[in-house]
Design goal:
Strand content: under 5%
Number of strands: 0
Number of domains: 1
Oligomer: single chain
Structural class: mainly alpha
Distance between the termini: 32 Å
Number of helices: 21
Shape: globular
Length: 394
């Protein structure tokens, strides 16, 4: 395989996805990929005469709308920010979106690239399993890379083994991975967009009922100077279900505070560089050694979509809803096409994986995975464009 510039960029994407501990936290790959994405956007958006070119993609337009929204909130937030450090730390939410243009413009080379290196990705994951895997690979990006290189969706041979290993990891580290696997299974099995919407609606209503039943207990939560996260243990003790999984219960508390207690002012958003949680200035009540002020600004609400709603308001929800409607309607209406056309089915699976990650973790609000999400969406958007072109040429 002749090495091209696109292969180098995709190799950077793979490294970034495989080990963010090294390639993002130490080498700032998210910022590098965002800059490369900006370059692709500028070079492809203007003719020599300076005329702006807009591709015929509704997802492309939605991403541009998100960037414009983010820039507007960045300007509005300047007088509201705590300080410049947290302002620029939160600004990664906005500039990471330029990663979308990497995916959009490298759709063609990515197919051949990932087919060439898929065995190396499998081998790397096996090595991670054999020797301190959390140091070598992140469980969330591992799931994404698995989806990207798994061409045979009967999940045979080594692909099936990797799924088993993923579930094994999940049993000892996190409940997110089995949920990801369940989501992939549902997307493979469900045949129509109507059934998918019904299943999604049912899941949403069930969650809202559960959340409503938990509300009397969540109202007991309050903060003080002794802990950034307040009396969480007291809330847990009020019902046996809260004690089953402290991580989920803690998320319920955060979501209640952001969505319910701050309604309706959260419809406008709080901007960037501002605290998500109330904190005592100068206090350090966490065992991490980092100040409460730091966690109040960057910890997120462990649902990336709620976090961005809290920061950018209802306009973000409208934009992201349009994106997901477009992606999943397309996927189910033309599922057979994507299943048999190149490796496009895997692109949708990878995007679904990252979506599941974002429902319970930091994603768009963290430089450790944000670019990977936008690049994945770029691949999907260009695949949809390709399907449009194929059908229009018939």
């Amino acid at each position: 395989m002749k090495i091209k510039k696109s292969h180098i960029v995709l190799f950077l994407v793979t490294l970034y996805g495989a080990n963010y501990f090294l390639f993002e936290r130490l080498l700032l790959f998210n910022e590098l990929l965002s800059l490369i994405g900006l370059g692709y956007f500028v070079s492809s958006s203007f003719t020599k005469s300076g005329k702006f070119i807009l591709p015929p993609s509704s997802i492309y337009k939605c991403v541009l709308a998100f960037i414009v929204l983010g820039v507007a909130y960045a300007l509005i937030s300047i007088p509201l920010k705590t300080n410049w450090y947290y302002y620029f730390r939160n600004a990664s939410i906005i500039y990471s979106a330029f990663g979308f243009f990497i995916g959009y413009h490298l759709y063609d080379p990515q197919y051949f690239f990932f087919q060439k290196i898929k065995n190396k990705i499998y081998g790397y994951a096996l090595l991670a399993f054999a020797w301190r895997w959390p140091f070598l690979i992140d469980r969330n990006s591992y799931s994404y890379l698995l989806a990207m290189v798994q061409k045979n969706w009967a999940l045979r041979s080594l692909g099936a083994l990797m799924v088993v290993l993923g579930l094994y990891f999940a049993a000892f580290t996190s409940a997110t991975v089995p949920m990801i696997m369940a989501a992939i299974g549902a997307l493979v099995v469900i045949r129509s967009y109507a059934y998918f919407k019904l299943l999604t609606l049912s899941a949403g209503i069930s969650f809202l009922i559960l959340f409503w039943l938990a509300t009397p207990y969540l109202k007991l939560y309050h903060t003080d100077d002794t802990k950034l996260f307040g009396n969480v243990e007291y809330v847990y003790s009020q019902h046996p279900l809260f004690e089953l999984d402290a991580n989920t219960s803690w998320r319920f508390i955060l979501w209640y505070r952001a969505v319910v207690e701050n309604f309706p002012k959260n419809l406008a958003g709080i901007g960037i560089g501002t605290p998500l949680l109330p904190y005592t200035e100068g206090a350090t009540t966490q065992t991490t050694g980092t100040t409460d002020e730091y966690w109040a600004h960057v910890s997120g609400l462990h649902n990336t979509f709620i976090t961005l709603f809290y920061r950018f308001g209802i306009l973000f929800i409208i934009i992201i809803a349009l994106i997901y409607h477009r992606v999943f309607r397309e996927f189910f209406l033309f599922k057979k096409y994507y299943l048999h056309h190149r490796n496009d089915f895997s692109l949708f699976m990878g995007f679904a994986v990252l979506t599941m990650v974002g429902l319970f973790n930091l994603l768009l609000d963290s430089p450790t995975l944000a670019s990977l999400y936008w690049i994945s969406l770029g691949f999907v958007a260009k695949a949809i464009n390709g399907r449009h072109h194929d059908y229009s040429s018939l």
